[in-house]
UniProtKB/TrEMBL annotation:
Pfam families: ABATE (PF07336), zf-CGNR (PF11706). Residues 150-191 form the Zinc finger CGNR domain. This is CGNR zinc finger domain-containing protein. It comes from Streptomyces salinarius. It comes from the Bacteria.
């Protein structure tokens, strides 16, 4: 799966402001983690591993693990039940369980030009990658400022949740180039139709 322009609706996107939210975004507009190749591309594109990290050891259980963490994180991010529901409590327990795994161990090594670059000490196990994502979710959910900055995209039928770090906290769309552009085009068409 190529990582081309952000206008392709099936492309992997990394514009929510958090890796755990980028994982949730892989369900829109269709399942984007439909194969191991897509998952490997997402893992690298998300920055969980340095570029060039071999992920050939990934197997179908990885897809299951990433999809489960995605579903549980989405449940926690999109709902704030008071009092908590059994489904919310179960999701919280699962994310906390995933977070117990230590993230992949990085190390600094000289690159081709002599400058230090980051690489992993060895092929990362699935649990370590899931642990890093779950820890990101825990940090997001327990940080009152970050949690207050969560926004649901205002685009038609767009379920993406993002962290609004814009000046004045007035960002409306997950992506100005995608949902924002669709809204501007729709607005233009409505005005043109009224002018006829």
């Amino acid at each position: 799966m190529a990582l081309g322009t952000a206008t392709d609706p099936y492309e992997l996107r990394f514009d929510t402001g958090r890796s755990c939210l980028d994982l949730i975004a892989t369900t829109h507009p269709v399942e984007r983690l439909g194969s191991l190749d897509a998952l490997r591309a997402w893992i690298t594109g998300s920055g969980l591993v340095p570029p060039g990290t071999p992920l050939t050891h990934a197997d179908p259980t990885w897809l299951t693990g990433f999809r489960e963490l995605r579903a549980e994180t989405a449940r926690l991010v999109r709902t704030r039940p008071v009092p908590p529901t059994p489904a919310y409590d179960l999701a919280l327990a699962r994310v906390n369980e995933f977070a117990l795994a230590a993230p992949p161990a990085p190390r600094a090594v000289p690159g081709a030009d002599g400058a230090l670059v980051r690489e992993l000490a060895g092929p990362p196990p699935c649990a370590a990658l899931l642990g890093a994502l779950a820890r990101d979710a825990v940090e997001l959910l327990t940080d009152p400022v970050a949690r207050a900055s969560l926004r649901q995209c205002a685009g038609d039928n767009c379920p993406i949740v993002y962290v609004d770090t814009s000046r004045g906290r007035r960002r409306r769309w997950c992506s100005s180039e995608i949902c924002g552009n669709r809204e501007r085009v729709a607005r233009h068409r409505r005005r043109a139709a009224l002018a006829r």
